[in-house]
Every structure is written in structure tokens, then in C-alpha cells.
Automatic annotation (TrEMBL):
InterPro entries, sorted: PAE/NOTUM
Transmembrane segments: none
Pfam family, one: PAE
Lineage: Eukaryota, Metazoa, Chordata, Craniata, Vertebrata
Species this chain originates from: Picathartes gymnocephalus
Molecular functions (GO terms): palmitoleyl hydrolase activity
Family: Belongs to the pectinacetylesterase family. Notum subfamily.
Matches recorded under PANTHER family: NOTUM-RELATED (PTHR21562), PALMITOLEOYL-PROTEIN CARBOXYLESTERASE NOTUM (PTHR21562:SF7)
Protein name, as recorded: NOTUM carboxylesterase
Gene Ontology BP terms: negative regulation of canonical Wnt signaling pathway
Amino acid sequence: SYYLKESKGSRRWLLFLEGGWYCFNRENCDTRYDTMRRLMSSREWPATRVGTGILSSQPEENPHWWNANMVFIPYCSSDVWSGASSKSEKNEYAFMGALIIQEVIKELVGKGLSTAKVLLLAGSSAGGTGVLLNVDRVAEQLEEMGYQGIQVRGLADSGWFLDNKQYRRTDCVDTITCAPTEAIRRGIRYWNGIVPKRCKLQFKEGEEWNCFFGYKIYPTLRCPVFVVQWLFDEAQLTVDNVHLTGQPVQEGQWLYIQNLGRELRNTLKDVTASFAPACLSHEIITRNHWTDIQVKGTSLPRALHCWDRSLHESNKNGKAPLKGCPIHLIDSCPWPHCNPSCPTIRDQFTGQEMNVIQFLMHMGFDVQKMAQQQGLEPSKLLGMLSSGN
């Protein structure tokens, strides 16, 4: 099943893969079926949906893509869009994420996709990882069908995870506490998950789980991909067992969080097109405030526009970057929400909005100590924090 909003005058197509974690064994898939049925079955899906963010058809909310043909593919396969196994005696559930994408492409060709100039495969969270796993396969599929003229690109939002060491190691009991490498390792077997050939060849047999991690699969991709990633992604912190609820963060956690931002920044340095704000958040491209976030004075829609232009120009004349139109945007400030355009934070208990300083204090940020470490007056540090420098 999928949702389609046609835009007859446009030869641009945007296919969006929904996210929503995954399940990797019978027990946690049963729980998911009981508690999150819409992510396991299409039975209760609404007849229509309203597109928001990059799926909106309002130019104010979506300045650059509002006029494209929009396709929303809901996530009911629970397999990070990688599965290729049908229901069997052995397995109650079918995991067909990779096949769902192929079937949707086949059907859209008859609905106008065949004359497309650009197909942007986008997705958030598990859908963002799904983009990395499927973008080259979509390009190959269209080539095999005889549509070599369609430029296939990827936009991966909040799907660039690290296979780092957890803050506190836990046994792999459920989706939330299981270390990402272990969850994916089990998941691939359970879903009969497939990864792109070029990535698979980089690793030994049985090590295909590596291809679910952005920084390992990205160098093997042929299609251009734009990576959008919060430096302090809430889903990453959750699987790393850093829980920011209520009580102040301990010093060990605080250092862990800052280090996570550094590691993530490092993995993005060779990514040609990226947008990585130093915020604590998860998912962005379908949020209606997605135009407000800026990195170094450039908004995300603007960066995507520059990326489109650079791909268009580079087809014509080598790879000269466009002046005043940046596509590699990564915050360099070191802690969550040091960027003043970050989304508002609310106290999880009171629901009160917090400014950056309140948030950092709430997390146990010691202004005196931090000022001392940076060789600054505390008042100067507070001024810098509130202006986001």
C-alpha cells in the first residue's frame, strides 16, 4: 500500500519511506503487533494522509519540493526496509521491506514515473537507513526496465547510526535496550534481510550487518545521497542507554554525549552533501518546522536546493562547488542545543519549554566548571551559549 499525490506538470518524484524502529525475534514482533499494529499491518491505515515538511504541497512549508509528485510508503515490514522473506510454516510474519519498494516502483512507472527526470528516495529513522540500503537497487531496477534517463538520488534523515560502544552495556532483551549491532545481526537472519552487493563484498560472510551503518555503506553507493543527521540523535542515545529523564545527567554521561557528537561529526566529514545540526532530536524532514533549523546560516531546504543545483551543474561542467550555496553543513559547537535554531525542548515531566541554558542546567551542566575548562568568565560562557556561538 502507498499514498500518492500526483502533480501532473512535474517530472520530479519524491518517494518517502516511513520509519519506526524494527523487531528482530518472535517475542518482540508479537509485542509490536499488539502495541503498534499500524507498523505491522495495513488494516487500520487511513484512506488519505496529509503531507507535512518535505511532503507538503504548500510552498511556504516546502519551498523547493512542493510541486513534486509525492509518494508516502508506510512502514509495515519492521525490517528496516531490508527483508525479503514471505510468511512460512517457520515464520508467522512476512518481512518484505525491500520487495515492497520494488513493487511500488513497478506500479508507479504506469502512473507517470516513466517520464521522471529525478526520483528522490527519502526516508526518516529506519526509513533513512532504508534509503541507504535501497537507493542503488532502485536505480538498477529502473535501468533494467529501460528508464536510464531517471536520476535516482537519496535523502537519508536520522538513519545514520553508529555501531559504537553503549554507555551502559545491556543484554539484548528488547528493541530499545539491545545494542544496534546485535539487534541488526539477529534481525538480518530473522527477516532474510538483503544488503546491496557492493557493500556486501566489503565484508566477510555473516558480517552483512555492517551495511546498516551509514558510514560503512556510504562509500560503496553509486547514487548521490544527502545525509541529514542530528549530532545528538535521540534514538542513538536510547540504544546507547543514555536516558535524559528528570534527574541531572552524571558527568560520565555528559562526556559520553559530547564524545558521541564528535564521533558522528567525524563519520560525516567525507560525506559530500550533509546537514548536521548540534541538536538533541530525531527526524526532521517531515516536520512542519523543518525550514527553521539552520547550520552556519543555511536552512535545510536551501541546502537541498544547492545540492540539486550542484548535481545539475556537475552534469554539465565538472565538479566546481557553487559559490554561496553550501551543501556540506556540520555544526562545530560541542554540546546538545548549542545551535540557537534547534527545535524547542520541553521538560519531559512538566511539559514546560526550556531555553538552552535551562536545558543544560537541567542536564547537570556545570557552568562554573565548564567556564574554567574553557578559560572563560562564567557570564561570558552563558552569553555565548544563549547566542549559540
